[in-house]
Amino acid sequence: MQRSTVRDVVTLSKATDFRISKNAWLAYQEHTYMQDMLRDLQDLTGLDVTRCEKLQVANYGLGGHYEPHWDFYLDTERLPEGLGNRIATAIFYLSEVEQGGATAFPNLNFAIKPKKGNVLFWYNLHRSLEGDYRTRHAACPVLKGSKWIGNVWINAITQPFTRPCLLHKDDAISKPYSTIV
């Protein structure tokens, strides 16, 4: 596993102080269990998962965290080639955390405590394929123990028949805004 990075418009990958964790990227076809997991995700959501990004397994040790962010790409001119934007996210919780480590959605005012075996799923994009700014989320600091998760990002490129784009804009309820601190 290597230090987790974030996407940077210049270098494409950058280690930062606002994301402290380690991760590894795994190909689904290398492990039968992961293929089953992906098939279950497709059955649950109805989304086409044939072209999603590799599974990102991440570990947040003591103090590990990821400050509030969106999973969709804000700069739609620099989308990963052949994938499109991230239409949805699924977090597979692979461990219990003794204290801390929740996934928090500050704009929606709720947090999910990690529980081994659970999956957290949400759409990142509206049906118009505009980003849903309500999905800003964070990995709260791990205060005791260790947090293991598997991130699956389902991309929009393979969804024209499973989740068709609407002809009208439907993003009025979640326009970008700034938080006043």
TrEMBL record:
<feature type="domain" description="Fe2OG dioxygenase">
    <location>
        <begin position="48"/>
        <end position="156"/>
    </location>
</feature>
<keyword id="KW-0479">Metal-binding</keyword>
<dbReference type="InterPro" id="IPR005123">
    <property type="entry name" value="Oxoglu/Fe-dep_dioxygenase_dom"/>
</dbReference>
<dbReference type="InterPro" id="IPR045054">
    <property type="entry name" value="P4HA-like"/>
</dbReference>
<keyword id="KW-0223">Dioxygenase</keyword>
<keyword id="KW-0847">Vitamin C</keyword>
<dbReference type="GO" id="GO:0005783">
    <property type="term" value="C:endoplasmic reticulum"/>
</dbReference>
<dbReference type="GO" id="GO:0031418">
    <property type="term" value="F:L-ascorbic acid binding"/>
</dbReference>
<dbReference type="InterPro" id="IPR006620">
    <property type="entry name" value="Pro_4_hyd_alph"/>
</dbReference>
<dbReference type="InterPro" id="IPR044862">
    <property type="entry name" value="Pro_4_hyd_alph_FE2OG_OXY"/>
</dbReference>
<keyword id="KW-0560">Oxidoreductase</keyword>
<dbReference type="GO" id="GO:0004656">
    <property type="term" value="F:procollagen-proline 4-dioxygenase activity"/>
</dbReference>
<keyword id="KW-0408">Iron</keyword>
<dbReference type="Pfam" id="PF13640">
    <property type="entry name" value="2OG-FeII_Oxy_3"/>
</dbReference>
<protein>
    <submittedName>
        <fullName>Prolyl 4-hydroxylase subunit alpha-1</fullName>
    </submittedName>
</protein>
<dbReference type="GO" id="GO:0005506">
    <property type="term" value="F:iron ion binding"/>
</dbReference>
